[in-house]
Amino acid sequence: MTQLWRSFGFIVPLFTLFILILSILLIGVFIFKMRQGANAKAVIKQSLLDVFLLASLSGILLVTLLPNSTGSEQIIQLMPLGSVVELIQHATDISTLIRILGFNILLFIPLGAALALKFDKLRYSILFSFCLSSFIEMTQLLLPGRTTNIDDVFLNTFGAVLGLLAGKVAKRFI
């Protein structure tokens, strides 16, 4: 966890500022819709879903698209499951494996849940998650110190699918 904080701790103030601005904008939209006579409960629900979706998208983009200043070289890995197999073979302990693979999965779970709660078409949500992850990996080709890895696309999409399933279950109770 300390290593994650060292790597991404600088994003917390940016993310917090973004959520604050987003919340102010959505409060304005809420007030506007309420003045037009909209159902308060429906407007609140939609506004919260919008915040959840935009927060998950902004978190993903902040974590993945800011240049890495650690000075590491550009790495491109296009062989499917190549880095996963290598990581399994050479990981010094299980925590390294869980941290690296798990973070890629966890990163997209909130997005999947938000998409499931907001939209009905799960296959389009999966396609959107796959395309977003592919876009991120292609963009990382242009960013200093970032790694482009096809396995990240698969792991991110798998995380989104887990989030979609969780969101689908949660939707029954909301």
Describe the overall structure.
This protein is mainly alpha-helical and 174 residues long. The chain has one domain. It is built from seven helices and two strands. It has helices at 2-8, 11-35, 40-65, 82-90, 94-118, 122-140, 150-171, and strands at 75-77, 147-149. The longest helix has 26 residues, at 40-65. The chain is globular, with a radius of gyration of 18 Å. The relative contact order is 0.14. The model has no long low-confidence stretch (mean pLDDT 86). The chain crosses the membrane at residues 12-32, 48-66, 97-117, 124-141, 153-170. Pfam families: VanZ. This is VanZ-like domain-containing protein.
Give a brief description.
The chain is mostly helical.
Order of helices and strands: HHHEHHHEH
Regarding quaternary structure, what we see is single chain
How far apart the termini lie comes to: 32 Å
Mean pLDDT: 86
Rg: 18 Å
The proportion of residues in beta strands is: under 5%
* Total count of helical runs of at least 4 residues: 7
Report low-confidence residues grouped into runs of 5 or more: none
Name the overall outline. Answer: globular
Count up the domains: 1
Q: Structural class of the secondary elements?
A: mainly alpha
**Which strand order do you get reading across the main beta sheet?**
1-2
- Helical proportion? over 70%
Largest sheet: 2 strands, parallel
What is the count of β-strands? 2
Keywords: Membrane, Transmembrane, Transmembrane helix
Transmembrane segments: 12-32, 48-66, 97-117, 124-141, 153-170
Organism: Alkalicoccus urumqiensis
InterPro entries: Teicoplanin_resist-assoc, VanZ-like
